[in-house]
């Protein structure tokens, strides 16, 4: 057996997620990309997702936009968005894309 897994934080271990489709406001069931519909991911991946969520909640609680927070950290808004949403999926990168600007 390979490494233990934990319930997927994206779909809550369901293998798929219900999303509200716009326009129309209907519920759609989408297959979860993060866990490939197995509903389970590696613990490290779950931790990455939780960390991104924490960062996002903290930023929102301070009333900062994605762009403002990215600027503060010396990141691009895109890079920060990747971090908050734990993209790309299933990589082993420990560090977020580092600031490269002078
Ligand atoms: Zn999932």
Low-pLDDT parts are 90-96
Helical/strand content category? alpha+beta
Distance between the termini: 47 Å
Bound molecules: zinc ion
| Helical percentage | 25-40%
Q: Major beta sheet, specifics?
A: 2 strands, antiparallel
Instruction: Write the element-wise H/E pattern from the N-terminal end onward.
Output: EEEEHHH
What gross morphology would you assign?
globular
- The count of DSSP E runs of length 2 or more, i.e. the number of strands, is 4
The fraction of residues in strands falls at 15-25%
In total, how many domains does the architecture comprise?
2
Roughly what is the average pLDDT, rounded to an integer?
A: 84
Give a description of the structure.
The protein has 102 residues and is of the alpha+beta class. It has two domains: 1-41, no CATH class; 42-87. It contains three helices and four strands. The chain has helices at 43-61, 66-73, 77-84, and strands spanning 6-7, 16-21, 26-31, 40-41. β2 and β3 form a beta hairpin.
């Amino acid at each position: 057996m390979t490494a233990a897994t934990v319930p997927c934080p994206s779909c809550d271990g369901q293998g798929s997620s219900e999303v509200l489709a716009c326009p129309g406001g209907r519920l759609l069931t989408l297959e979860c990309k993060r866990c490939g519909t197995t509903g389970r991911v590696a613990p490290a991946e779950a931790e990455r997702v939780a960390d991104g969520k924490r960062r996002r909640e903290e930023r929102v609680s301070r009333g900062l936009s994605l762009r403002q927070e990215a600027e503060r950290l010396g990141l691009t808004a895109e890079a920060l968005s990747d971090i908050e949403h734990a993209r790309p999926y299933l990589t082993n990168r420990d560090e977020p894309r580092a600031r490269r600007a002078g």
